Amino acid sequence: MARLADYFVLVAFGPHPRGSGEGQGQILQRFPEKDWEDNPFPQGIELFCQPSGWQLCPERSPPTFFVAVLTDINSERHYCACLTFWEPAEPTQEAASAEDAADGEEELEDGGRMRLSPSAPAPASQLFAPKTLVLVSRLDHTENSLGLIYTVHVEGLDVSLESVIGNLLTCTIPLAGGSQRTISLGAGDRQVIQTPLTDSLPVSCCSVALLFRQLGITNVLCLFCAALTEHKILFLSRSYQRLADACRGLLALLFPLRYSFTYVPILPAQLLEVLSTPTPFVIGVHAAFQAETQELLDVIIADLDGGTVTVPECVHIPPLPEPLQSQTHSVLSTVLDPELELADLAFPPPTVPASSLKMQDKELRAVFLRLFAQLLQGYRWCLHIVRIHPEPVIRFHKAAFLGQRGLVEDDFLMKVLEGMAFAGFVSERGVPYRATDLFDELVAHEVARMRADESHPQRVLRHVKELAEQLYKNENPYPAVAMHKVQRPAEASHLRRAPRPFPRLDEGTVQWIVDQAMAKMQGAPPAVRAERRSTVPSGPPMTAILERSSGLHANSARRLEVVRNCISYVFEGKMLEAKKLLPAVLRALKGRAARRCLTQELHLHVQQNRAVLDHQQFDFVVRMMNCCLQDCTSADEHGIAAALLPLVTAFCRKLSPGVTQFAYSCVQEHVVWSTPQFWEAMFYGDVQTHVRALYLEPPEDRPPTQVGEALAQEEPPSALDVASEQRRLWPTLSRAKQQELVQKEESTVFSQAIHYASRMSYLLLPLDASKSRLLRERAGLGDPESASNSLVTNSMAGSVAESYDTESGFEDAETSDVAGAVVRFINRFVDKVCTESGVTSDHLKGLHVMVPDIVQMHIETLEAVHRESRRLPPIQKPKLLRPRLLPGEECVLDGLRVYLLPDGREEGAGGSAGGPALLPAEGAVFLTTYRVIFTGMPTDPLVGEQVVVRAFPVAALTKEKRISVQTHVDQFLQDGLQLRACTFQLLRMAFDEEVGSEGAELFRKQLHRLRYPPDIKGTFAFASGATHTPGRPGRAAKDKGPSLRTLSRNLMKNAKRTIGRQHITRKKYSPPSWEHRGQPPAEDQEDEIAVSEEAEPSTLTPSAGLKPADRLTLSSLVERACCRDYQRLGLGTLGSSLSRAKSEPFRVSPVNRMYAICRSYPGLLIVPQSVQDNALQRVSRCYRQNRFPVVCWRSGRSKAVLLRSGGLHGKGVVGLFKAQNAPSPGQSQADSSSLEQEKYLQAVVSAMPRYADASGRNTLSGFSSAHLGSHAPRARVTTLSNPMAASASRWTAPRGKWGSIRVSGRSGGPGVGVDVGSRLAGRDVLGPPQPNGAPPDSGFLRPQRAALYIIGDKAQLKGVRPDPLQQWELVPIEVFEARQVKASFKKLLKACVPGCPAAEPGPASYLRSLEDSEWLTQIHKLLQVSVLVVELLDSGSSVLVSLEDGWDITTQVVSLVQLLSDPFYRTLEGFRLLVEKEWLSFGHRFSHRGAHMLAGQSSGVVPIFLQFLDCVHQVHLQFPMEFEFSQFYLKFLSYHHASRRFRTFLLDSDYERIELGLLYEEKGERRGQQACRSVWEHVDRLSKKTPVFYNYMYAPEDAEVLRPYSNVSNLKVWDFYTEETLAEGPPYDWELARGPPEPPEEERPDSSAPQSRRRVVWPCYDSRPRAQPDAISRLLEELQRLETELGRPPERWKDTWDRVKAAQRLEGRPDGRGTPGSLLASTVPHHRRSLGVYLQEGPAGSTLSLSLDSDQSGGSSASSSRQAARRSTSALYSQFQTAESENRSYEGTLYKKGAFMKPWKARWFVLDKTKHQLRYYDHRVDTECKGVIDLAEVEAVAPGAPTMGAPKTVGEKAFFDVKTTRRVYNFCAQDAASAQQWVDRIQGCLSDA
Fold it and tell me: Going edge to edge, which strands form the sheet with 1146-1149?
């Protein structure tokens, strides 16, 4: 029973003590005046009566009523019913408020109390003060009583107020039980009070329904989740009653959980600072204070009047797990709007009347009750009953609950289970023996029904209505009674002048009534309602909330069978069988069922808690356990670690007598063992088992077998059932028995605590104390805060652990650190569980003393185990696969065992490309002098015996980074290393533990040493030759005549002499410093030679004869690539007198032959004829790095020239153009050099053919393409607006072709000519742009234009004033700098070879990162600039490219322009010449840009040359028939320009190469023995063996100018960046990649049965071109094979190919008629040419044929076609051969005996009288000379004798010997006659000399 009301209080307005306008509440009277013993008087009632503050009102307002809720210290709620009415203010009150009247008025308005009533205007001066009647009660039934008291007062009823209040305070009613109580307070009233049936169910009246009406479904669900996940919730409304209802409604929804945080439905204004509390709350505040709630950052604000819920950005409210969220939402909408279901029906049934508000309220609550039943279904199966007596102690196993419900990842449920409300739920509802309510029945019995109803909305609704009925019945057990009668005041009674203020009551009278009632109560017997208690039903076991199929690892019975079989094989000792199954088992163990199966099977093999295994069995069991545990999270939701815990202490092996190793020492590296929550759950589970066993002892009289049968028949009772039974019996037991049971339970808990302390020490102390570092880093052991959510704070654990640390004397020892951490961890655990389980403090102290001893003992045991285990033979690891090495390549570090981990590329991991996962692979990394190589095999057992190779040249390494590696299946891996190379390779490795950190560090150091050698001699290209041939005598031993050394010396002298007088300008790059720079110049000046015929007065001394050294210098220079090219272009030839005819506009100047003017230029340069050599020195000063403009190419057709130079210095042309006035007479040296420069440019212009009118020269800017057609047809340009039309009228087609395969017309129209500079500055404001990024209509190329365009950097040409009188024009463009290329390349590397998988898989992230790199944008700019220059040159203007220092972007542009303009450079020989000339001779800084030396380490890799090759690749793609070389050739060069395997791409200029003696190595016998030093030699050698560098589609058009499209949309990402061949590593070291050729499978002699010729080709593993060669390669291979079979020496592929092409040209022309069907008709439109393959109908029916070559003549005669047939592809460039191959006095085949112990070989010999040489080649058609015999060295030619191995068929007289100063050569001719002829010829040459 409870009092209806505890206190009655009268509160009135009183003045504020500080005299402000606001008043404060004063308690006038309270009854009873003494506090009740069981219920003290609540403080602060006066604040809650007027939550908005106490204020006077200018008029009388109607009375208001609301119920505030106060919560006391015991979490008891007190309901304060407040009825407020207004009385005229007394004079004292008015005076108090008049002091601050003005403010008061405003405040009143703010307070919202000014309700002016028209009916009774009060006098202006009259104010009204509020007065409040308050009833404080623990029951929420007091509304009527206060109204009655007010009515008695207002209506003046003849009833004593004292007696009414006395009766009210003494009235008692039952708390629950559904009884009806009728009471009367003695004022003629009759009140019926109904109590709810059960007090555990909340009473909500209509509050839930109102809440939904005000806020809507989504908002209420949001608040519901927020309240459950402990967020702060604030309600706003103008009505206090609504605030109270909303809060009450929200809490009613949370049932069966109770809200345990701050709960204030109506918060007074004075307490608003409560809102900034850090704890969660549910609070209501009047809407007037909304402004003050604005700055609350983490509070969810629900505005009841506006219907909105505002969630701050920083707050995340997890939603309900699906499908519950959507199901709940749909049921709520049906309940709130029943017509929703019928809204779409054509014939809706008669509408059912909507439920009453009260009923709807219960239906809404029923939905949430069902929701909780679904969420918490089966929760009782996860309760651990730790103690039964004296009071039950119950814990909830959260992890197991989440795991079994399948909601491990669910944020919502996770937070709910960790919340305070759920903790209260467990302690209240976990009790096994108690009264049950609706929720218990729902969870226990209705789960199956709810699951079945899920898909039937009608059945769900029916269930909801049934539950609603029960909830309604709980609140209203009886039908409404009509006897209810309470007086109310008359309408508008508050406006009548009250006869008197509320009287002061007589305390004595009220107290007397209360005392009388109390005396009566004491006499009466206490009304005790017997509580019906029972065992709480557990309900069905839990199921997952959503049956997810586990997809990949659906554990079929077959998989479980495999696990069982494997374990039985292990224990039966069938190790081979087990080994076969192990991979399948480890794969199956990814699934939960298989892991459970494993633990069950292992349990079967444990007898008496121990199972001794042999070493192999032990290894197998440990591997399987580790595999199980590696997928366990720290919480162990699926109980796998829990099931394995007893097993790891059971399985063991004997290491030596007395030393046993248990499995736990091998499975420690899992995070689950260092998680306190896991140990707590395990401990409680075990305690529950033992406590249950205490009470389940079998009766003694029954034999044990019967006991077993009895148990088998009936299900044994669960721990909760046992506990429930014990709780029922507890009151009946005697005191002694109770005491005994309590002690038994306590000792059970205590013994388990000891057991767990040792268990934890087993799993936390590492076998090897040196691993303490790892252990400390594991979660939880380091810091006490993160260790546990323990509520035990100030216990003794800390102090004992500290004392242990300080007193044990181990402070400095390594183990003490580990031991101390473990002791602290165990102590915290023991503290927490023992305190919660009610262990006595004495026992707890004893435990704290024992823990350090347990740990110490275990450490000692482990030392012995560790010592013995190290003596075991190590487990056999896979054999290391040794990589194949190149000749000269040596191992620096032999195989270090590593795991190659997958990176961001999907292919190797078996991603989207398909195929099994090749990575991770287990193997070794080798470091050689040339490469970093990984070889190994995939760890995935399904891949089979595949070898994985990943390698890259050491020189290509760009970044090395340490990475941390996740634990591997078997071992714990320590260090990881990620190496990224600029050849687009990535090695992501984890070192095996056997390597150790020292091994890993050594690897890094050695790698660094090889990557950045101190000087060039340390690179592989130099070191390999030296080490490979140790027996060779030094070259200096026999210096013949003027050798390289003298050449180098001469060069150095001159360079040093000129260094002093050189005009040193501001430079970014200074050449290397030479040792003798400080010495005075040498005396002998005779070695300077004059090349021009006229003697030049300045620097060159005229000299009559050349010294032999200089002759060699110049002849060597003449043999350089640039001179051969100048000769071909007709730019200058060097005759015997080294002079030229004056008619030529340009000449070869040797001014730089000693590299004195410009270090980075070649020795011979092309300059205008009219410029003297001494002027060049001065011109060079105007340019950066002294790189003055020189000619590098001349158009054969328009005779325009292409020049290149460095950028301008500040002075020079730019200064010239900027100066407004003429130069003053007193010029400085700089001005004079500027004049020289102007003269020089003038000379260049003058040297050009004058085809344009000099007087009215138009510049490039501002000329309209409309003038186009009217000018001379010289330019031959048309617009390409309609390609089809252009091809139809052939003569109007432009010279050259566009790389388009489209037929769509381009947007035509006359383009407005635009300034070229702006066009290239990246702003495409060009005419109408072409769709593919081609330059706009060629209309902007006009016939009248400047003779020379200077393309310069925009920044450098700023403010330049173009002068119309000048004959040149500046074109400023924006170009990127080297640092931008570097940054872009870095990003490109990361995009193409990512280090880790992308956050969002799929192509989008790759494309995004590719775009971010801006690599393709840079290529677009390069192509765009190059095409512009090609256009200018083609139209007859010359161009000077003068960008940056003239060695990066200038080189790219100049090379591209020549490649596009001149077909010769698109051949193999031509491309080599182009690279040698423009990149090597003109000083591109390969070593600097590739960071080859230690000095360049900081500058990083800037792949300028790679970018150029990418541009060539783009052009190649658009014009596949124009290039003789293949795409592989470009990739080969891209790889080797960074690899440092060849010397070609080392050093920064010819000057440096000469200094090292690289440039002009002697040709002769000795060179053959060395490995290839030059990449070109290597390419030539390979080309003889294989057509891999040759493009079969090569069919060039003569004099074809290419104009590729350059838009980014037309560019393709080069597959060089992305492709990978894991089978053999990069395919660019051909000797390694090919491997020994295996015979095809079907031809192996032992294969009797016919075998399939099919094989699987994996992308990224196999080399696709190798596995599936193209048709022509395949045919050539087949031919070679057949020739070998027939016993013929196989012919060169090139000869075969040329013969086939020639034959193909001839066939089909017997009658000399037109073009045969197999040939390309010349009418094929231009834009189709780039496809490369033509399909055409032949004369006899439709035949398809591939055109291999083409002729330009459309209707050529048969004779011309025969001529063409004789012209092989090699003939295309045979006219450009060097002088070497042109002078052939006599030639033929001779057999030559090799050097010592070498066989005789047939060679093609050429006797050259001019060069006085006897050269020999491999074949007649060979262009590369194999060796040279210098006739100057020949001493005698005599007949010889046959030696061993000589050809058998020839006579003895066919032999002759040639004796030189070095050795004797043995030759053999076909017969005696030809031998005699050779002897005569050679002797004739000797006599001529």
Answer: 1146-1149, 1165-1168, 1190-1194, 1201-1205, 1438-1442, 1348-1353, 1368-1373
